[in-house]
Amino acid sequence: MPFTHDTTTTLASAAALVNSSPRHTVDGSEELPTVAALNDFLAAHDWSYRARRRADVTAVHAFRERLERLWPLPVEALAEEVNGLFREHEAIPELVNHGDFGWHFHATRPGAPLAASMAVEIALAISDLIRLDEAERLRVCAGSDCTGAVIDFSRNRSRRFCDQGCGNRANVAAYRARQSGHDDGPTP
């Protein structure tokens, strides 16, 4: 199922935002501790917004906690949460054309707080998944000790692991388990 560029970019950045939390990083560190780190994240994920002060970082952290709770929800509850974000931030969709995205939606007033703008754009992207009956593409990592966010854009919906190295660790563990069950030498 093809998705628009802004939907895929926004959903990928939503998963990365969730996974930037100390609860999901490999070493338990906060990946977005400062305005500069948040701005680096925003630039790396093609957001047109920028953080201006420490309060923006605090608000994005609070939104990130809320976003994290959306990942495992069934579609009806997910839709309720998305609608709640739209209402809370008084979303009014508007078509805009800037950057390399072409025409896409913004739904907060110019100058709205960073976290509100991010929340509404992520809600718009999640609403695309819901409308296309593709909400199951939002997954929690299948890693044995991970609860990271996964957005699965694979054709056959087979992606199971987050971007924190869980897939590699699972493959190594499976390889070692297979090797421990085999004799290393030739059979006499």
CATH architecture: Orthogonal Bundle
Give the distance, in angstroms, between the N- and C-terminal Cα atoms: 53 Å
Tally of separate helices:
6
Q: Which superfamily, in CATH terms, is the homologous superfamily?
A: Jann2411-like domain
Proportion of residues in helical segments? 40-55%
Helix/strand order: HHHHEEHEEH
* Average of the residue pLDDT scores: 88
Count of folded domains? 1
Question: Would you give the CATH topology?
Answer: Jann2411-like fold
**Secondary structure category:** mainly alpha
Please state how the strands of the largest beta sheet are arranged side by side.
Answer: 1-2
Could you walk me through the main structural features you see in this protein, from its secondary elements to its overall organization?
The chain is mainly α. It has a single domain, classed as Jann2411-like fold (Orthogonal Bundle). The chain has 6 helices and 4 strands; from the N terminus they run H-H-H-H-E-E-H-E-E-H. It is globular, with a radius of gyration of 19 Å. The protein starts with a helix and ends in an 8-residue tail after the last helix. The C terminus is likely disordered.
Highlighted features:
188 residues, 4 strands, disordered C terminus, Jann2411-like fold, globular, two-stranded antiparallel sheet, 6 helices
Q: Summarize this, please?
A:
The chain is mainly alpha-helical. It is 47% helix and 7% strand.
Write the layout of secondary structure elements.
Layout: H1 5-19, H2 35-44, H3 54-70, H4 75-88, E1 94-97, E2 103-106, H5 114-131, E3 138-140, E4 149-151, H6 166-180
Helix pairs in contact: 1-5, 3-5, 4-5
